[in-house]
Automatic annotation (TrEMBL):
It is a multi-pass membrane protein. Pfam families: SecY. This is Protein translocase subunit SecY. The chain crosses the membrane at residues 18-36, 68-95, 116-136, 156-178, 190-211, 217-235, 256-277, 313-334, 374-392, 398-416. The gene is secY. PANTHER family: SECY/SEC61-ALPHA FAMILY MEMBER (PTHR10906). Component of the Sec protein translocase complex. Heterotrimer consisting of SecY, SecE and SecG subunits. The heterotrimers can form oligomers, although 1 heterotrimer is thought to be able to translocate proteins. Interacts with the ribosome. Interacts with SecDF, and other proteins may be involved. Interacts with SecA. The central subunit of the protein translocation channel SecYEG. Consists of two halves formed by TMs 1-5 and 6-10. These two domains form a lateral gate at the front which open onto the bilayer between TMs 2 and 7, and are clamped together by SecE at the back. The channel is closed by both a pore ring composed of hydrophobic SecY resides and a short helix (helix 2A) on the extracellular side of the membrane which forms a plug. The plug probably moves laterally to allow the channel to open. The ring and the pore may move independently. The keyword Amino-acid biosynthesis does not apply.
Length: 433
């Protein structure tokens, strides 16, 4: 493995790409610590270090920003607006026929959809920046911790406007950095930036476990984490291969087809999206309750059952939402009828299954059955931090679970595969054996 990494850095073109990727990642991490204009940086640091801090509603966004959200840095919004814009654009393909038509037009249509995603990212960034500034002014950003209400030094309209523009511009810069990695570096740029944000929280999480629970609990957590990583890698690489046979056909004087291949249907086709959807939907009641009367019955009910993850009702709702969104997202992203039509157009068929509608029904049957264990697996992984909260009181400090481990393992595997394929193109032995 080490010799393969050394060969990768000895290859001039690949070395240039790797160093460029590392340089962009360094710029991204540096921007996470540069304070936005008009922020009381010293007061923010004291609030972040406060033992009373509960991230609550902003935990997921703070995770994807690499801790920049609570730092109120220029990259406070992180990559979350782009993720939301990408998901919305993908879901709109079902509602707006024009988007579906662009998706089928190849590279030109994809470029147009990418442009729409950029515009939507800036719009969502502006909305999120306004919400973040309003939350910071009210003191709700740090859960109404004492002394964390006056974080903005310049409270004038000019100061607030400059702060919102800076945060929105930070989102646009992050989007540009991710695209530069995709074009000139190694791997998918946006995924690598998310990976960097999530992985940056691991050292502090480990340190917090050692300081609060001791070395014995830390060793147990690391051993459990290694087992979880192995299981996640196993499931992420698992797939059902549906065999496909292509009939021979004559085009002019040449014969094409007659080959055998397969359709890979992964156990976890939805990735980390259902976990994001489920956690975001569960955050909505808590967010709404902040605008209500703290003494009212419905606000107290939400605070008791839907705010912390240690309540059985919260866990059950979280698990069921993940299962539902897994089926929902897979149904949108994988269209059995479209796959069956393409196979029929090029003379392909599944052995024992007639082409056309029977093939679509068979693919839908296989997809429905394989999505069930995939959804249960996602629900189980997402419940690990909540179980850790109950057992060792380490929800925020437990890195091996939920979105963290899914992102780290998934992005890591894809990046290693891309490096491996580029090395094999140059007749070198790859990273994977």
């Amino acid at each position: 493995m080490l010799s393969a990494i050394a060969r990768a850095f000895r290859t001039p073109d690949l070395r240039r790409k790797l160093f460029f990727t590392l340089a962009i990642i360094s710029v991204f991490r540096l921007g996470s610590f540069v304070p936005a204009p008009g922020i009381d940086y010293k007061q923010v640091q004291e609030c972040v270090a406060s033992p009373e801090l509960t991230q609550g509603v902003f935990g997921l966004v703070n995770l994807f920003s690499g801790g920049a959200l609570l730092q109120l840095s220029i990259f406070a919004l992180g990559i979350m607006p782009y993720i939301t814009a990408s998901i919305i654009t993908q879901l709109l393909r079902v509602v707006i026929p024009r988007f579906e038509q662009l998706h089928k037009e190849g590279a030109a249509g994809q470029a147009k959809l990418t442009q729409y995603t950029r515009y939507l990212t800036i719009g969502l960034g502006l909305l999120n920046a306004t919400t973040l500034v309003a939350t910071a002014r009210s003191g709700a950003l740090f859960g109404n911790v004492a002394g964390c209400t006056n974080l903005i030094v310049d409270d004038s309209w000019i100061g607030i406007g400059l702060l919102i523009i800076t945060l929105t511009a930070g989102t646009g810069l992050i989007m540009w950095l991710g695209e530069q990695i995709t074009e000139r570096g190694v791997g998918n740029g946006m995924s690598l930036l998310i990976f960097t944000s999530v992985a940056s929280a691991f050292p502090s999480s480990f340190g917090a476990i050692v300081s609060s629970q001791g070395w014995d609990v830390f060793v147990i957590v690391v051993l459990i984490g290694l087992v979880i990583v192995g299981l996640v890698v196993f499931v992420e690489q698992s797939q059902r291969r549906v065999p496909v046979q292509y009939a021979k056909r004559m085009v002019g004087r040449r014969m094409f087809g007659g080959t055998s291949t397969y359709i890979p249907i992964k156990v976890n086709m939805a990735g980390v999206i259902p976990v994001i959807f489920g956690s975001s939907l569960l955050y909505l009641p808590t967010l709404i309750s902040q605008f209500g009367d703290p003494q009212s019955a419905w606000v107290q009910w939400i605070a008791q059952y839907l705010t912390t993850g240690d309540h059985p009702l919260y866990m059950a709702l979280y698990f069921l939402l993940i299962v539902f969104f897994t089926y929902f997202y897979v149904a949108i992203t994988f269209n059995p009828e479209e796959v069956a039509d393409n196979m029929k157009k090029y003379g392909g068929f599944i052995p024992g299954i007639r082409a056309g509608r029977p093939t679509a029904e068979y693919l839908n049957y296989v997809l429905t059955r394989i999505t069930l264990p995939g959804s249960l697996y996602l629900g189980f992984v997402a419940m690990i931090p909540l179980i850790a909260l109950v057992l060792i009181d380490a929800n925020q400090n437990f890195p091996f679970g939920g979105t963290s481990i899914l992102i780290v393992v998934g992005v890591g595997l894809e990046t290693v595969k891309q490096i491996d394929s580029q090395m094999q193109q140059r007749h070198y032995e790859g990273l994977l054996r």
